[in-house]
Amino acid sequence: MTYKVAALYQFVPLPDFRELRDPLHRLCLDLEIRGTLLLAHEGINGTVAGTDKAIDDLMVELRGGALFKGRLDNLELKFSTSAEMPFRRMKVRLKKEIVTLGDPQTDPLRRVGTYVTPAEWNRLLDEPGIVLLDTRNDFEVEMGTFEGAVDPRIKRFSEFKDFVKNKLDPGQHKKVAMFCTGGIRCEKASSYMLAQGFEEVFHLKGGILKYLEDVPEAESRWNGGCFVFDERIALGHGLVEQPDRGEQSDE
User: What are the structural domain ranges in the chain?
Assistant: First the structure.
């Protein structure tokens, strides 16, 4: 059996996010969906898996059902498949942030960088003076990244602020392009950098996953696999599962 996997997020005001937890959890259990969804005052984030029909039914409910009352009409979604169920159970967690940067002044609902589609990404990377940033954690970067990308060498995303403060200069680094797994970390990172005075900040819309889905391998600037936070470990071009590092070392 093949399972459909949905990675999703949206920054949107959810003042009632605490009240949404239990009914959302029940809905997923009724659909026999597993995975993790995070709810916070600023929106929703997570990855879930189930049958094609179950995931489709969940997306219909999230986007237009009574639970969220049409507030999730702009979900950022990426779909992939898994030969086995990649999650052990269903969790809906309440958080202060749906992705933790730890800077109260950073607000993607107010301002973010310029979105760049996967089709336009390679052209942006060829522009002179561009600084290409991988905003992910060090173990993710080790598995794969774009050619020429700067590795901030951070253990957790909340350390990104220190990297920007210590290694980047708005007066020198005029044009910055950044990317992450699904796009959500770049929403926070680009908002933060704009607030720090960086003039032009671009980010890959839909993240690496969307790039691997849309861009033919022959035209790709991506090297390696893209780490995903489930039992599949990594995905490659076409969002095809890749063997984990342990399996590769045993060959």
Answer: 3-94, 114-241
